[in-house]
Structures are given as C-alpha cells and as structure tokens.
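agent> fetching stored inputs for the 2-acetamido-2-deoxy-beta-D-glucopyranose docking request
agent> found them:
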Amino acid sequence: MKLFSFFILVLIEWTSAVIYRLNETEYYRMPPVTHLDPYERCLSRPGGVYCSAELGVVADGPNELYSLMKEYSEHTVTHFNRTQLFYGVCMTSTCRDFYNANETDLKHILEACLNKTLWDEYQLKTRVTELISCDKHGDTKQVYAADIVVAVILMLIVMLNLIGSLYGFYCISRNKQDRNWLLCFSIVHNWEKLVKPPNPDPEVARFRGLSGMRSLTMMLVILGHAFLPSALSAVNEFEFEQLYDNLAYQIFFNGTLIVQTFFVISGFLLMMKILTYSEHHQMSWRMVPKGIISRWLRLTPSYAVLLAFTATWMRFTGAGPFWARIAEIEVNDCRRHWFYNLLYLNNYIDKSHCMTHTWYLACDMQLHVLGLIILGVFTSGRARKIALGCLFTVGMLTPMLHTYFQNLDAVLLVSPTIMTTFFVTDPTFNNVYKRSHTNIVNFALGLIAGWIVHGWKKKQIDEANFKKYRYGMWLVWPAMLGVVDLGALFYQARPPPARPLRALYSSLVKASFGMCAVLVIMGCVLRVEDLYRGILEWRGWTALARLSYCAYLIHVMLIRILGGMRSTLTHVSFLQINMEVYGMIALALLVAVPFWLMVESPLSQLVNILLAGNEKEKPTKTEVNMNEKTEKK
Ligand SMILES: *[C@@H]1O[C@H](CO)[C@@H](O)[C@H](O)[C@H]1NC(C)=O
Ligand SMILES: *[C@@H]1O[C@H](CO)[C@@H](O)[C@H](O)[C@H]1NC(C)=O
Ligand SMILES: *[C@@H]1O[C@H](CO)[C@@H](O)[C@H](O)[C@H]1NC(C)=O
Ligand SMILES: *[C@@H]1O[C@H](CO)[C@@H](O)[C@H](O)[C@H]1NC(C)=O
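agent> prediction call returned; pasting tokens
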C-alpha cells in the first residue's frame, strides 16, 4: 500500500494549495465570471455609453474570499479563472456617479466605478486589464476602401452567377455542344453537380465510404466548435463546470482528436493518386511543383472570398457586449495576417485569430507538399519504404518531444478559459495541436495504408478473405470512442500526470486514433463488413461531402457572429447544448449550399479549365476519377 501511494506521488506533479470542489453555496459567493448590463437599453438613450472590459480582481490586504477564488482557479482544466472577469457595463447608468462626458479616460472611470461596486458587494477591488470596447449611442462604423473593393468583387461574382444562369437557361437548351466558361456560373448547372449521384464505376465506388467519413468528421468538428461561446456566456457557471465530470460530454471536450481523421484520409488519397498515376506515367520530381500549384489553385478561391469577407464586411454583421471580443478581433487579425492564411503558413503564426480553424488547411497543405516531395524523390519501393518508416518515426517523436520539453498538456484541453479565446492563447494548441510537424504521424499512417491497399488491389486478392475480420471491425468504432473518452483522465480533479506520461500519451493517442481511422478506411475499401460500410456509403453523404469544405470554412464565422451578437447570458443545459450544436451544423450546411453553388463550384471549374488549358496530355480515366475524389478535402 505504501509502495502504491509512493507510486501515485511520483506519477503526480505536486502543486500548491488547490481547491478542487466547492458546494454550490460556497461557489456562488464568488463574483460572476461574466456580467452584462442590458446592452440595447443602454445604447438606446442619447449619450449612452457601454463598455466591455476584462478585469483582474485584487484584494487590499488579506481577504478570505479572494484566497478562496485564487485557490479555486488554480485547477485551470475545468475551472474558470475566478480572478479574471469579463464585465459589460453601461457607463451612463451603472457608473453614472463616476461618468462625466468631458472625461476621456474611460478605463479609469470604469475602474473606479467597479472598485466601488465590487467593494460594496464582495469587499474586493479590481484592475481593468483591458478595456475591450466602448460603444456609444449613435455610433456608426466607417467604410474603408478595402470594404468597397471586396463589395465590388462580391457583386461581380453575383453578377456572373446571374449572367451564367441566364446563359445556361436560354442558350444551352438550344445548343447542347456550346460549352462556354460562363456555364461554370450557371446555378442550375451547379445544382445538378451538387446532387449528382455518386459515380457507379465499381472501382470508384470502393472509395465512397470516404465521403461518409469526411462528412461525419466535418460535422463533428462543427459540433465541437459550436459549443465554444457558451463558456463566455454561461449564467450557471457551477453546472457548466460540472459538465466535465460527465463522460457523455467528453465527446465535446476530447473531440479535438477527430480532426486526425482528415489527415489519415489525406495521406491515403495522396498515395492512391500517386500510385495510380505512376501506373501509366513516369514519376519525377517535376510533378512536385505542379502538384502544389494545382492544389493551391483548387483550395484557395473560395477560401480567399471568405477571408476577404471576414476582413471587411463581417464587421457590419452585428454588435453587442461580446462583439469586440469574439468577432471583431478576428476581423482585425485578418486585416493584419491574411497573407499568411493565403500562403497556408498560418499554423506557424501564433496569436492570430484570423480564421483560426484554417490551421488545418495550412497543415494539410504542408503535409501534402511533404508527401509529394517524398513520393516524387524516392521512387523505388525500397527507398519509399525507408522514407515512410522515417516519416512515421518522426511523426511519433515530435509531439512527444514538444510535450516533454515545453511541459505541455497531453492533449488539447478544452478548459473554460481556453474556450473563450478559441484556443489562440493555449500553448498546447500553438505548439503541438496545429503545427504540421506534430501532425505527421497520421498522415504517414494514411500514406502507408494507401500503399498497402493499392498493393492488395493489384494482387487481386479475393475479398472473401477479408470477411473473416468483420467481427474485429465492429470493435473499431467503440475503440475510437474509447480512445476519445480516455482523455477524461486529464480532466479529473487532481494534479496533472507527470511529464513523461503526458509526453508518451500525446503521441500514442494520436497514433491510436489514426490506426482506428485507417482500419475504418480499409474496412470500407476492402469491403470487410457491411454495417459501417453501409452507413458510410449512404448516398446522401455524397452531396454533404461536396459541401464539407465550404461548411468547414464558414462555420467558425457563423459561430463568432452568433456568439458576438449575444447580449445576455444563457442557461447551459443538456438540451440547450444539443440545440446549439445541431442547429449550428444545420446552419453551416444551409449557408454552405448557396456558397458552394455561387462561389466554390464556379471558381473550381474555372481553375480546372485553366489547368486543363496548360496540360498538354489528356488525363487518363482513372486520374480523372481520382481527382474527382480528392476534389477538396
Ligand atoms: C458548503 O460548505 C461550507 C464550508 O465547507 C459549509 O459550511 C456549508 O454548510 C456547506 N453547505 C451545504 C449546503 O452543504
Ligand atoms: C487568472 O487570471 C489572472 C488575471 O488575468 C492571472 O494573473 C492569473 O495568473 C490567472 N490564474 C491562473 C491560475 O491562470
Ligand atoms: C463639459 O464641458 C462643457 C464645455 O466644455 C461644459 O459646458 C460642461 O459644464 C462640462 N460638463 C461637466 C459635467 O463638467
Ligand atoms: C481600484 O482599486 C485598486 C486596488 O486597491 C487600486 O490599485 C486602483 O488604483 C483603484 N482604481 C481606481 C481608479 O481608483
């Protein structure tokens, strides 16, 4: 027993006084983390001024409540930082004794005012750490030149859609041969493309499960993100923090692993594409730049349109106490950092809120380039085997080393404080989660899986051979869920595990989740069993998979706009969370439909025309099929 407790002590890092649990009575003695005065009412009055600010609570001298708050905040994983508050204050009513229209130092006024209110109620004082925004009655936002330029471009796209649709409607009905680039913009034509049934060719149909995986993963990503603003606006903080104890919610909190599926799919498809290509063509390093450029051209147009909108007109879509903190911050960062996004380097830029979720696109692009280089340079089987082995090893080591030497969390921990900043300030997010070199492992697994599957297919192995593994396959999804829920260990009411353990876990968990994804893919492609495959090959996924790129691009903007427009706190509950996340999935998909029809599909067809114009040789049939499949992640 003694040995056991010694073992526990070694495993657990010692930290100073921490309060893990409080009963409700004690809990609500602390001032609320977020407080909002009525926003619309305040600004409706002439002269009304409403300020939002981040505050640090301080105490003059010893204070029992203050030490309680500090000790309670030490457990950052599941507790709010109780000494860091967000207040929205109507200066002209709540602080009317301090406010004076001639005085310009609003920060000082707010601090004096809050010093008084917090002192009266809690015997605490405060420092305004950041005056986030001050809105005045009758404020209007200025329109800049960049806004006009973007508006013109957007109008142009809409015009092209109108003209293209009319053209498609009147001309094509008469002359079916007449194929004009204007037809790319025909909405009817694009709608037909969107709902087109999947390709019935059996060799292509094999890969149909990937559409299902991609759509499901995209929905789960949105599901995880939709929940983020709740942390800032929860009125029942006590219950909110208790969500972490519930295993069912761990799917939200540990769902961050799900994005690894994309990397596996990406590696798998790249390998299949290259191997299929090299059956008919000589491989050379010269295809590397070509591959990079064509991928950039395929992914960038709709991304650029959305980025331009985010950097300009998104400012005008709402207002509220949270607006500057949740939405405007992204607008400002996009103005500053947009070129990193377009060059797909934004996952190596920290502290930028500009379309933070597109770290994945950057990462995927970089891994794709890496994969192309490796496959383009090492063309013999033996060299490739060694290269892939090295890639996998490097992929296993990088998260481990980062976690160990930078003393990071084992997984991305979705703590209440981190949720309110959309992860941007989190060291684990910045150093391990979003970098390319720390996400290699599953890309490598995808490449290896692609190679194996291609080999088996070439050898024409009888599929009946694989059927015996179907009972094993059924265990894969529970295993995935298990891997996800295992992360619950890190949310427990105790100090974090020791560094070596965290380091080990950080790369093992990625690889295990990736292995599960590989097994699901192989199970679909090799037709091992029919249950999961049936679900993943459902016809409806085909259209959703086409929309998934747009929905992915758009969803964070919707979440930020909706979150930023909140002007009251909400009661967080099981049903409310469900309504919010499923509502957001539906909304993102709904908005993605017109975006796909009017922007994504026309522009990518234009790019295809452009690329085909440069291409001397006609692509072979299989290549076209592969392109269709890899058509946007
Ligand atoms: C909550 O905890 C405090 C201090 O530990 C105790 O005095 C109080 O009785 C408890 N209240 C309830 C309702 O259990
Ligand atoms: C809580 O916030 C305060 C003020 O921003 C900061 O000084 C403190 O380090 C934070 N506490 C923890 C445990 O992160
Ligand atoms: C503010 O300044 C104006 C003119 O400068 C003056 O008439 C007014 O009395 C001042 N108001 C206060 C509250 O000091
Ligand atoms: C508010 O109280 C803190 C702590 O006593 C003090 O440092 C600060 O100067 C006060 N602010 C104002 C504006 O009085």
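agent> quick read of the result: Residues 574-614 form the longest helix (41 residues).
agent> awaiting further instructions
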